[in-house]
């Protein structure tokens, strides 16, 4: 479509010398392009393009899902990767070309649906259209010979159709008295509701993106966070979010509980929290998987969990750090084997900084000299620790993950390993300089997420009307029935032509046959009585 | 019965249903091979007279016992197939669609049931039994070989009443779409023959229902499946909002559901648009079929996303 349009425009015959003015021609051209854009064919092509455009978004790693996977992909494909990146193939759903496709589709939709809605509004108020000239040309049509006079026969037909909830209009046509009946405007209404709901849905989505935000943070039992971008580990916010405007909410995690089935399938995760305004006491509640905290406009989720080992570090010279803890990130979701780091940059009276890097197993087991985890429950927690001393590079200006040590500092020899050991809870390792590190215990942490999406309820409302419109459009039928009465071949009777036009819903033929059968019966039982008394009696009202 | 005995029964029934489908397939083959040609001209309508649209398919000529046998065996196969899921459900005390094996088994069941219902209402459709059961058996064997997962409890994220709503409607929608896709594929095969050589309308394909009824079958099943699929998508979004913290995140499974939904919207449009009716629209439907299959298999087995849980 997009390729044919310019070509056809270019191939248009050159304007005759005394042709319309440039402005008029431009208007005609724009009108033509607009018609083309709002044609059903274009809609089909655009729908296809939309489907096609979504494909790379599922086959290539996406930044919106996992920054890490994208980084990994770029590292694995140093030649191809940057090119794909330039084409937004790692951000497909926020790329300009994806937006172009759906915006074109929605412009086409507006151009298609708005005129149709206006026309439908008019049609609702106007009577059914006159019968076509030749009724027997319609696919569902028949001729009945009835003894009643034309007007009386049409009366019977009208009555039968009104009982069936048709709107009926009688007219005196050139070819004799005729009748048009119609029902099923709801089908068209359904179509419009559906397509307009799609527009509403898009607007609600856009609103949610503009004014919504989301922050996530790992919270260890006994700690908490408040809703501000400085506190979150990661956050994303729409362009119209004012960071001073976040709802004042703080959440404290009191206890996290993970339960497992016998075969170690995770059965439930629940977090006992307190929440409220920053200064307030906080109300207790329990949230979990499938069961977030819903507040006015904000939701708080538990999206994951893991362990936070705690250590006591005693440095020679009297300083000691009690219970320094760091969340270790699970590297295996089945066994919750985790990895993490603990950084002690400021030790009074010492130049060197101290850091621990470790592997944590909630239920540890030595296999081939290596610590591994065999169970996600903290039955026998162990850490394999490496201690480093030197310069961490925290103030080097480059951002560093809090969950790992900067490997380049180790490679450059700025950080040197000064000891390693496997520790169970309560065990201690001694470093050559006399520092004592004790694995003092383990807590659980919850990965929490706070989301604010003001468009969400509108998306839901649009989705519901969309479904209702869809059902109306697909399941209802629009039927028109026409009848024309011809005075018969001089015997006082009538030749009644009947026809119907159906949109939607399968076998129109058999329904038409049923209708004609009913009409025939009604005409047979009603007609003789009236013709017997007075064939020329005007129709009763 | 104990849970493990029930789980074993479920596995046995799986083999039984595949066996029954296979014998039914043979019967349908015999029907195509030995059955007499149908008198299709009956569908022609005299001009002027009352036009009666043919029912979905005219009854087959010469009561075809092979076809009946095939239908009977298929129904038995369906019972065994349903038994697979019922026994699973009883063994695990939950809805039997908690992992790919169960989900895929259920989708195939819906496809067969949809076919049986249609074929009971319109006997002419028995002639496409081979083309429904062939893919069904392939699918079942594939499911048994590659997707099999032991009966077991659900992971925490799946313990929600939305599992019943979202997954059940997704199963229904996908199963119905599969039948629709098969009908469109047969329509394409059928009309290619008569288009290339109008006179030479013989051979196996000529025993199929007429192109028009295949096309109508495809459209009607798609019209039936589309709202269900739409509902599945909405229910999924509602569930995702409470389970994952966002109602839509372009997770691979979500993306492919969106893609198939858009393709079916394209098909419904194509059916009502001049220039797209007939074969082009049928191609769109076949593409939809491929996308649904891809979504069922590839996305769960190969890509990793939030939806990859429950084994495989
Ligand atoms: C945003 C994407 C769209 C979707 C998902 C969509 C979906 C649908 C669906 C499912 C139908 C039902 C077809 C049937 O009755 O069998 C339909 C009908 C229709 N659509 Fe769309 N549509 C979209 C965009 C458009 C656009 C852009 C136009 C106009 C150019 C349009 C015009 C129509 C019309 C006129 C019908 C009625 C067809 C008929 O019953 O004759 N749609 N649409």
Automatic annotation (TrEMBL), chain A:
The chain crosses the membrane at residues 42-60, 97-118, 192-213, 457-476. Residues 1-11 have a biased composition (Low complexity). GO terms for biological process: cytochrome complex assembly. One of its GO terms (cellular component) is membrane. Residues 40-504 form the ResB-like domain. It comes from the Bacteria. It holds the Pfam family ResB. Residues 1-21 are annotated as: Disordered. It is found in: Membrane. Keywords: Cytochrome c-type biogenesis, Membrane, Transmembrane, Transmembrane helix. It is a multi-pass membrane protein. This is Cytochrome c biogenesis protein. It comes from Blastococcus xanthinilyticus.
Automatic annotation (TrEMBL), chain B:
GO terms for cellular component: plasma membrane. GO terms for biological process: cytochrome complex assembly. It is a multi-pass membrane protein. Residues 97-307 form the Cytochrome c assembly protein domain. It is found in: Membrane. GO terms for molecular function: heme binding. Its main location: membrane. Keywords: Cytochrome c-type biogenesis, Membrane, Transmembrane, Transmembrane helix. The chain crosses the membrane at residues 12-34, 66-87, 99-118, 130-149, 161-188, 222-240, 255-270, 282-301. This is Cytochrome c-type biogenesis protein CcsB.
């Amino acid at each position: 479509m997009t390729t044919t349009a310019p070509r056809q425009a270019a191939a248009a015959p050159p304007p005759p010398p005394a042709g319309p003015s440039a402005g008029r021609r431009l208007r005609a051209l724009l009108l033509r392009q607009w018609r083309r854009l709002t044609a059903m064919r274009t809609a089909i092509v655009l729908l296809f393009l939309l489907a096609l455009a979504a494909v790379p978004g599922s086959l290539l790693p996406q930044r919106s899902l996992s920054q890490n996977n994208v980084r990994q992909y770029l590292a694995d494909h140093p030649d191809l990767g940057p090119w794909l990146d330039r084409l937004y193939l790692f951000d497909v759903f926020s790329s300009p070309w994806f937006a172009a496709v759906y915006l074109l589709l929605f412009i086409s939709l507006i151009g298609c649906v708005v005129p149709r809605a206006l026309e439908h509004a008019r049609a609702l108020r106007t009577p059914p259209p006159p019968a076509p000239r030749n009724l027997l040309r319609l696919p569902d049509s028949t001729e009945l010979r009835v003894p009643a006079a034309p007007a009386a026969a049409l009366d019977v037909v009208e009555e039968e159709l009104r009982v069936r909830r048709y709107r009926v209009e009688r007219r005196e046509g050139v070819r004799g008295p005729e009748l048009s009946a119609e029902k099923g405007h709801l089908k068209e209404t359904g179509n419009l509701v559906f397509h307009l709901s799609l527009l509403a849905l898009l607007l609600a989505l856009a609103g949610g993106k503009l004014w919504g935000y989301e922050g996530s943070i790992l919270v260890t039992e006994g700690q908490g966070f408040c809703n501000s971008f400085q506190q979150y580990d990661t956050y994303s916010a729409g362009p119209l979010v004012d960071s001073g405007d976040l709802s004042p909410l703080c959440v404290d995690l009191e206890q996290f509980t993970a339960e497992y089935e016998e075969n170690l399938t995770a059965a439930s995760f629940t977090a006992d929290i307190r929440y409220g305004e920053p200064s307030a006491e906080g109300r207790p509640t329990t949230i979990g998987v499938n069961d977030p905290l819903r507040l006015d406009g904000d939701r708080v989720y538990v999206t994951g969990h893991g362990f936070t080992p705690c250590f006591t570090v005693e440095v020679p010279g009297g300083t000691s750090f009690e219970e320094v803890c760091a969340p270790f990130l699970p590297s295996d979701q089945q066994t919750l084997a985790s990895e993490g780091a603990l950084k002690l940059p400021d030790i009074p009276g010492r130049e060197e900084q101290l850091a621990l890097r470790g592997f944590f197993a909630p239920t540890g087991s030595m296999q081939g000299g290596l610590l591994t985890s065999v169970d996600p429950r903290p039955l026998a927690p162990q850490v394999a620790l490496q201690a480093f001393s030197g310069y961490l590079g925290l103030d080097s200006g480059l951002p560093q993950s809090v969950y790992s040590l900067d490997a380049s500092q180790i490679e450059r020899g700025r950080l040197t390993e000064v000891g390693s050991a496997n520790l169970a809870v309560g065990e201690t390792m001694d470093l050559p300089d006399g520092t004592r590190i004790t694995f003092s215990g383990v807590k659980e942490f919850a990965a929490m997420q706070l989301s604010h999406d003001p468009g969400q309820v509108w998306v839901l409302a649009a989705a519901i009307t969309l479904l209702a419109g869809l059902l109306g459009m697909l399941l209802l039928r629009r039927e028109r029935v026409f009848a024309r009465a011809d005075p018969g071949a001089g015997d006082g009777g009538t030749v009644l032509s009947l026809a119907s036009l159906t949109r939607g819903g399968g076998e129109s033929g058999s329904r038409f046959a049923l209708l004609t059968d009913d009409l025939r019966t009604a005409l047979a039982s009603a007609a003789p009585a009236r013709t017997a008394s007075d064939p020329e009696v005007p129709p009763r009202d | 019965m104990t849970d493990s005995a029930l789980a074993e029964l479920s596995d046995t029934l799986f083999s039984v249903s595949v066996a029954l489908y296979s014998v039914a397939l043979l019967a349908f083959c015999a029907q195509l091979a030995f059955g007499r040609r149908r008198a299709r001209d009956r569908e022609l309508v005299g001009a002027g007279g009352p036009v009666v649209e043919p029912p979905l398919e005219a009854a087959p000529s010469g009561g075809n016992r092979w076809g009946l046998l095939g239908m009977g065996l298929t129904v038995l196969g369906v019972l065994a197939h349903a038994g697979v899921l019922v026994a699973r459900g009883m063994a695990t005390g939950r809805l039997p669609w908690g992992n790919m094996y169960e989900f895929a088994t259920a989708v195939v069941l819906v496809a067969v049931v949809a076919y049986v219902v249609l074929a009971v209402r319109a006997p002419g459709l028995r002639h496409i039994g081979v083309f429904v059961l062939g893919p069904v058996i392939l699918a079942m064997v594939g499911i048994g070989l590659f997707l099999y997962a032991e009966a077991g409890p659900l992971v925490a994220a799946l313990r929600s009443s939305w599992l019943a709503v979202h997954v059940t409607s997704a199963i229904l929608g996908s199963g119905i779409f599969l039948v629709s896709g098969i009908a469109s594929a047969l329509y394409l095969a059928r009309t290619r023959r008569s288009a290339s050589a109008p006179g030479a309308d013989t051979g196996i394909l000529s025993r199929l229902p007429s192109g028009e009824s295949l096309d109508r079958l495809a459209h009607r099943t798609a019209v039936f499946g589309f709202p269900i699929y739409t509902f599945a998508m909405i229910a999924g979004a509602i569930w995702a909002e409470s389970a994952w913290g966002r109602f839509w995140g372009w997770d691979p499974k979500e993306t492919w559901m969106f893609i198939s939904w858009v393709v079916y919207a394209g098909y419904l449009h194509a059916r009502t648009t001049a220039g797209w009716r007939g074969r082009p629209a049928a191609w769109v439907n076949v593409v939809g079929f491929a996308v649904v299959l891809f979504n069922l298999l590839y996305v769960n087995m190969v890509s990793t996303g939030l939806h990859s849980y429950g084994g495989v």
